[in-house]
User: Which sequence fits this backbone?
């Protein structure tokens, strides 16, 4: 897994609340048993006027410059709620995203991000809005019409746990120690757990005696 | 120290402290399905790893399989066959028991797992599927994971998990006539939003929960994820034990006695502290129907479609406006009476025998309105067989419903069968997201009885006005 330490990139605002994983990658875009090539299906129902021909909707944020090259997504509350499909994260990654910043995340999606080298950053809505630097309070408008010249370049420092906007303002964020370590080191979590395998096997032995009905 | 039910199961499964804020939890049961399980098994194999304890791992075909009679590996969904055949091959290689097409135990994972006694009180159970918390209705600690985490669980029999906060939702009083567990959970989400449960394991408690049968408790926990919760759970009781007794994979003989003694210890201590408590008056809940594109966009069936102008929060207001536009609804209008095009009864939320019986009570002696496409998809092959044994299939078909083979079916659109663009569907499923049941399809979530009543009326209807026909 590609480690995440520091990253600077263009941040695309899509501040709708409750963006579900069906919206991030519609089920019909998951055509094969594969983690690859899913970027094309990312936000397919919003990105394309015609999903079949892939005719783009020029108003959608990721179809506009400079956001076609975005590597950080700024999203609304409860991003990635709904289905557990890890394809949502694989699609974001395949498109080029390295981080998502939102006030909150669906819990399975959050875990899926961490396991694929994408940093999910929880920032309070006022901080998020400050990064987007909206002149107007119309959050939806920026998802469709990116005329407000939002700060495009955002920097994330995972060791320091800060997000820095184009004006140089820092916003601290929290992340669990285990998740942070996994991202920083690009660790294989299975290999990490297997270092505790003796304890796992000992637990299983004790448990088999205590709860024999579990062991079919 | 006084502990909650979830904390007890948690600590009983704590294997080690990795020292990073997580707990390494022992996983008793793992379930897979062909949509996300195939990729987990393939990933495991590609990494040169194997499944530890395949006897405790199960797999079913539910997400991609067609639900038409005479179905096979060939699917309406383009490319669907690969999901079925790849899963079958990988599961067979790994020695995993698979409830395949044609197996009398095949069905939707969260219907099959309690029905077969694979999910039990007090166990930890995971599946790469967001509705895994369903079996919390039995008093299991169960939660949805991704495919990569599933690889971890399969390879190590454990998962490293950060402990969720504890919430209790207490439903006091008794549910009125025509109100179900589906209405209870929708009412909670409507009041406390689709993100209200983020970071919590939610214990559902109170008189109205105790009064629910086990299948209804499964419905309640099924949609905890739609509340944003990590999982939901209900303390097991004598009803639970009676439900579990005699199921194919449930303990027997001496094991049963030991298990029962253990299960009886599974309750929240009286003075246990919760991080958050919510109380709802069950007697005040009426049948609920969603109007928008998030489960939090729900209403009492006799309510009026809300006006976004009255919402102070900008993000929520914008989401409401967008939802009204997608759903082609106008603020201020009554939700009941809105004409529908289709009705769907099925999904891991509401497709169990008790759901089908309740819907059949409404349908008996009646017929769906002209032009309404109505479909019933039993949650498992066993549910289907049991329903047929008591003649429910004939009630559904006589009322004008299609009667299908079991599976997830049109709960979601994966490129195969779907509802039409701008079609309005009343559905017993769990997600009313944009395009969920078809491109441009407008979904209204409701209980199976409300779906049945609405199918008859041809419009969103109040089930309380549909007393069972005198036979």
Assistant:
């Amino acid at each position: 897994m590609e480690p995440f330490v520091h990253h600077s990139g263009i941040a695309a605002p899509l501040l709708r609340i409750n963006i579900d994983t069906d919206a991030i990658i519609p089920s019909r875009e998951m055509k094969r048993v594969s983690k690859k090539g899913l970027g094309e299906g990312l936000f397919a129902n919003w990105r394309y006027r015609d999903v079949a021909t892939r005719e783009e909707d020029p108003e959608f944020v990721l179809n506009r410059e400079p956001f076609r090259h975005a590597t950080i997504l700024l999203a609304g509350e409860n991003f990635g709620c709904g289905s557990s499909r890890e394809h949502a994260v694989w699609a974001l990654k395949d498109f080029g995203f390295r981080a998502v910043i939102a006030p909150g995340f669906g819990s399975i999606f959050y875990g899926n991000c961490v396991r694929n080298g994408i940093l999910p950053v929880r920032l309070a809505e006022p901080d998020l809005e400050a990064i987007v630097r909206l002149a107007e309070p119309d959050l939806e408008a920026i998802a469709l019409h990116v005329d407000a010249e939002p700060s495009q370049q955002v920097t994330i420092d995972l060791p320091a746990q800060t997000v820095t906007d184009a004006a140089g303002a820092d916003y601290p964020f929290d992340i669990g120690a285990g998740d942070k370590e996994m991202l920083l080191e690009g660790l294989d979590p299975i290999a990490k757990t297997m270092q505790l395998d003796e304890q796992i096997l000992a637990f299983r032995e004790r448990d088999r005696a205590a709860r024999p009905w579990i062991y079919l | 120290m006084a502990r909650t039910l979830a904390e007890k199961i948690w600590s009983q499964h704590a294997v080690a402290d990795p020292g990073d804020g997580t707990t390494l939890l022992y996983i008793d049961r793992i379930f897979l399905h062909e949509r996300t399980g195939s990729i987990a098994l393939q990933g495991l194999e590609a990494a040169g790893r194997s499944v530890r304890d395949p006897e405790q791992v199960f797999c079913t075909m539910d997400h991609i399989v067609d639900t038409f009679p005479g179905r096979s590996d060939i699917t309406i969904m383009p490319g669907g066959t690969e999901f079925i055949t790849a899963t079958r091959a990988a599961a067979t290689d790994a020695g995993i028991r698979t409830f395949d097409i044609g197996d009398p135990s095949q069905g939707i994972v969260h219907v099959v797992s309690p029905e077969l006694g694979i999910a039990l009180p007090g166990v930890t159970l995971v599946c790469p599927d967001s509705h895994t918390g369903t079996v919390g209705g039995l008093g299991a600690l169960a939660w949805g994971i991704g495919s990569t985490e599933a690889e971890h669980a399969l390879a190590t029999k454990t998962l490293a998990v950060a402990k969720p906060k504890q919430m209790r939702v207490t439903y006091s009083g008794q549910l009125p006539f025509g109100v179900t567990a589906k209405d209870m959970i929708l009412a909670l989400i409507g009041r406390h939003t689709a993100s209200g449960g983020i970071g919590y394991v939610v214990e559902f408690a109170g008189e109205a929960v105790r009064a629910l049968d086990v299948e209804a408790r499964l419905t309640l926990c099924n949609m905890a994820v739609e509340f944003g919760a990590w999982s939901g759970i209900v303390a097991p009781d004598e009803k639970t034990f009676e439900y579990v007794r005699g199921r194919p994979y449930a303990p027997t003989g001496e094991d049963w006695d030991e298990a029962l003694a253990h299960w009886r210890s599974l309750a929240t201590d009286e003075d246990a502290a919760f991080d958050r408590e919510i109380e709802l008056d069950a007697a005040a809940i009426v049948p609920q129907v969603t109007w928008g594109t998030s489960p939090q966009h729900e209403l009492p069936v006799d309510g009026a479609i809300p006006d976004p102008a009255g919402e102070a929060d900008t993000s929520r207001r914008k989401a409401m406006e967008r939802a009204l536009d997608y759903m082609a609804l106008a603020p201020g209008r009554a939700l009941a009476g809105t004409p529908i095009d289709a009705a769907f009864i099925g999904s891991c939320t509401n497709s169990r025998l008790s759901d089908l019986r309740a819907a059949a009570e409404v349908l008996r002696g009646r017929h769906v309105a002209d032009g309404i496409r109505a479909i019933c998809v039993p949650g498992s092959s066993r549910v289907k067989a049991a329903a047929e044994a008591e003649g429910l299939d004939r009630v559904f078909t006589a009322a004008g419903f299609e009667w299908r083979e079991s599976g997830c079916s049109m709960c979601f659109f994966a490129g195969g069968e779907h509802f039409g663009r701008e079609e309005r569907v009343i559905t017993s499923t769990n997600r009313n997201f944009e395009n969920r049941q078809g491109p441009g399809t407008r979904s209204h979530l409701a209980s199976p009885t409300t779906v049945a009543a609405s199918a008859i009326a041809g419009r969103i209807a109040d089930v309380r006005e549909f007393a069972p026909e005198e036979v």
